[in-house]
Amino acid sequence: MMTSAENSKDAGNLTKLYRSDEKNYVEEEELSLDFLSLLETELDIDSSRCYSQENETFFSKNVLRKQRHWEKILAAKKCKRKQEKEKRKAKASENNSQGTIKERHSKRFLKELTMERLLTAKYSGPKLCIDLSMTEHMTKKEISRLAAQIRRLYGSNRKTAKPFWVYLTGFLENSLLYDECVRMNDGFNNYLVDTTESNFLDIFPLEQVVYLTPDSNSALEDIDPQKVYVLGGLVDESIQKKLTYRKAKEHGLQTARLPIQEYMDKKVNSKNFHSEILAINQVFDVLSTYYRTKSWPEALQTGVSSGKGYVLRDNATMETY
Ligand SMILES: C[S@@+](CC[C@H](N)C(=O)[O-])C[C@H]1O[C@@H](n2cnc3c(N)ncnc32)[C@H](O)[C@@H]1O
């Protein structure tokens, strides 16, 4: 059993706890209940120890006064905590809604900026055409992969500060490729590109066309906004060698390959694998980075993955020319 000195020491500690921060709320409440029971105990102890008619009235009055006093403190504390909780809640929801508005603004702003850049490219930027007239050379799986590459290419073009204007030519609406594009590309029908079933040969003046093909004898030196750069819509798992090169030559078109040999070296690897044939989205990343930076080393570094077995030549500088 505790002495009254111990009891009053506990009461002192309790007062300190009441002054402590809110985290101790549960602890405080438990202690305050303890305290009330201590007061009751105190009454028992003292009444058993020094019971008399006059001090009984005095003592019960004293205990009741203390009890009321602590009850008041507890109630005030509880009320304050409630108010603070409400304040915090209101502040959090205000911050939240401000964040959403800001986000919404910046999202809308970015979308408008992207649209503006793409539309500027439509009228004054370089043109990139994906020749989709060769799907008969591909398996179903390759066609699905082509649809995924179109999605990546479009995604890169949306992000860059200096986009190309993209044409999808020879693109038949009733085709597996179309279905795959819609299935794999969110909002495909809203893409800011020109699509047509016509062949690029019937749309662009042939002297403006540069067919990009890994089999060309000429390395691409620069990007001319007056030209149309054509990529063969092909995914070569069963390598169709020189398909686009032959097609371009047949129509007397200018051809060019990426300047990989000019800026990169073959890297020794266990499979002794070296390939200059890139996927269309990788070719596009090279073109797009070059168009933005005017640096072939930087562009090739971006688009030619290490799996192709090439590394930048030691003296190939990353400076912008
Ligand atoms: C996977 S490649 C297809 C290669 C195929 N054997 C061909 O005949 O074009 C897809 C397209 O990306 C472009 N491409 C790929 N690597 C290239 C390179 N090193 N230089 C220029 N164009 C390239 C070409 O337009 C090519 O048709």
From TrEMBL:
Instruction: Give the catalytic activity.
Output: guanosine(9) in tRNA + S-adenosyl-L-methionine = N(1)-methylguanosine(9) in tRNA + S-adenosyl-L-homocysteine + H(+)
Under what name is this protein listed? tRNA methyltransferase 10 homolog B
Q: List, alphabetically, the PROSITE patterns matched.
A: SAM_MT_TRM10
What InterPro entries does UniProt report for this protein, alphabetically? Answer: MT_TRM10-typ, MT_TRM10-typ_sf, Trm10_B_MTase_dom, tRNA_m1G_MeTrfase_euk
Any idea which UniProt keywords this protein has? Coiled coil, Methyltransferase, S-adenosyl-L-methionine, Transferase
Task: Identify the GO cellular component terms for this protein.
Answer: nucleoplasm
Tell me the superkingdom of the source. Eukaryota
Task: Name all SAM-dependent MTase TRM10-type domain ranges.
Answer: 114-311
The organism named in the record is Hymenochirus boettgeri (Congo dwarf clawed frog)
For region Disordered, the annotated ranges are 81-101
Q: What class of enzyme is it?
A: transferase
Q: Tell me the GO BP annotations in alphabetical order.
A: tRNA N1-guanine methylation
What EC number is given for this enzyme? 2.1.1.221
Gene Ontology MF annotations: tRNA (guanosine(9)-N1)-methyltransferase activity; tRNA binding
Q: What does this protein do?
A: S-adenosyl-L-methionine-dependent guanine N(1)-methyltransferase that catalyzes the formation of N(1)-methylguanine at position 9 (m1G9) in tRNAs. Probably not able to catalyze formation of N(1)-methyladenine at position 9 (m1A9) in tRNAs.
